[in-house]
Amino acid sequence: MTDAARPYLAALAAELQRAGTIRSLQWAEAFASVPRHVFVPEWYEQETNDKGIAVWRRHHATTADEQLAHVYRDTTLVTALDPATAEQVDDTAWTGVPTSSSTLPSLMAGMLEELTVEDGDRVLEIGTGTGYNAALLCARLGDHNVHSVDVDPALIHAAQQNLAEAGYAPQLAAADGQAGYPDGAPFDRVIATCSVPAVPPAWIEQTKPGSVILTDVALGIEGGLVRLTLDEDTRARGAFTRTTGRFMAARNDALVYPSPRHTAAAPETGTRPTPVTAHDIRTTYPFRLLLAFQLPRTRLVYHLDDAGTTSVQLQSSDGSWARVPLTGDGVGTVKYGGAEDLWHQVEDTWQWWNDAGRPAQDQFGYIREPDGTAYVWHIPDGRQWRLTPPG
Predict the structure, then answer these.
(1) What DSSP assignment string belongs to 102-126?
(2) Looking at residue 391, what is its pLDDT?
(3) Which residues form the domain of 217?
(4) How far apart are the first and last CA of the chain?
(5) Total domain count, the chain
(6) What pLDDT was estimated at residue 1?
(7) What is the DSSP string of 249-290?
(8) How far apart are CA 344 and CA 356, in angstroms?
(9) Whose CB has fewer CB within 10 Å in the chain, the N or C terminal residue?
(10) CA torsion 106→107→109→110, rounded to 10°?
(11) pLDDT, averaged in runs of 10, over the chain (391 residues)
(12) Closest to 108 in 3D by CA, of 35, 203, 46, 27
């Protein structure tokens, strides 16, 4: 670690402590000792170029104060693009879809605190990425207790080099994280820095009663972090966490994301007034999460019409849709196609959420049963929603 980086390491750890995302001395020491710049020698930032194209501009880290200050900001840094979608547009810029990143440090800190590790715990990390989070785990638990897998062999190779440079040597493997890491099982903790539509069976099989699983569950319209504890009957029970954040989806292929198949949208059938606006949906995370419970086979997308109006649109797997504009005279109206009750369910959910006191995400529990079925419930009154993975 260069001497130039030391003040930035200390400042980042202090910032995360002041924000309350770091609550323990052990994690404060880890963030103050693990050099992030070693794991992010280059990164991409999105910008609009002089031709009006949204591109990812590559940046390089150096020991210069300006570059170190950038790397040690509390921000996510994209570190890899999908080669199937990436197209170089000039010497340092590409279009494309991100496939790996160095996660927002405050989110990492919150998740690591939520993991509640103890000395001697064996941890499996799903999604090695740059290796930075694995290094933090090593700093807290020791190299021999940390196992990390990533579907991309190139990322594993780069992470191994980064970790060695920083002085850490956890057990790494190139593998589909949804299959876990049977060679290292059983684990006391599983932490995933990718999203999954449901908790994979392998994670249950490779842990033991009392173990904790922390992952981002993607439910269609929205998703969130759940912290689950495994019981004697292999039931994983817990709740959505106060720590909020979303991750890139887990992949089965090292290079590309699969192309989703969607049913064609139904023809427009009506327009009417509505009390629920695009602003309500965009700015209220717990409400979006609740909509995901209520409408499990529905996606949230943005729609641009021929007049240039951008709308928030809910798109059901049967082709039904409903959308409300972001701005303009029509913010209090909904257009819809297909099943008319799609937006009625949105309005009913909005009413229930407000009547219930606008509960935050940590007021919703999550259970994965031994047979793989999962449901959520409103902890104060017990109302339940059975989950169906988005498709």
Answers:
(1) E--HHHHHHHHHHHT--TT--EEEE
(2) 45
(3) 105-240
(4) 46
(5) 2
(6) 47
(7) BP-SSSS-PPPP--PPPPPEEEEEE-S--HHHHHH-HHHHHH
(8) 18
(9) C
(10) 110
(11) 84 96 97 95 85 83 79 88 84 85 92 97 96 98 98 95 97 96 97 95 97 97 97 97 90 60 82 96 96 94 86 94 91 92 96 98 97 96 83 45
(12) 27
pLDDT of residue 70: 86
Q: How many CB atoms lie within 10 A of CB 270?
A: 11
Residue 151 per-residue DSSP state:
S
- Per the DSSP assignment, residues forming a β-bridge with 60 are 42
Q: Which residues pair with 232 in a beta bridge?
A: none
Structure tokens at 275: 């009390």
Closest CA to 130 of 86, 87, 100: 100
Other Cβ atoms closer than 10 A to 356: 14
Residue 35 within any structural domain of the chain: no
Q: Which residue has the tokens 């392998």?
A: 202
Phi, psi (degrees; rounded to nearest 5) at 240:
-70, 145
DSSP string over 125-192: EE--TTSHHHHHHHHHH-GGGEEEEES-HHHHHHHHHHHHHHT---EEEES-GGG--GGG--EEEEEE
Judge whether 334 and 323 are in contact, CB under 8 Å. Answer: yes
Does pTM top 0.70 for this prediction? yes
Integer Cα distance of 72 and 224 in angstroms: 25
- Write down the pLDDT at residue 334: 96
> Which run of H or of E encompasses 137?
helix 132-141
- Of 33, 88, 42, the residue nearest 67 (C-alpha): 42
- For residues 127 and 229, membership in a common domain is answered with yes
CATH number of the domain to which 321 belongs: 3.30.160
Same domain, 200 and 137: yes
Report the SS3 class of residue 176.
coil
Phi-psi region of 76 (alpha: psi -120 to 50; beta: other; left: phi over 0): beta
C-alpha separations of 386 from 231, 246, 377 in Å: 20, 21, 9
Give residues with Cβ within 8 angstroms of 382, minimum separation 6. none
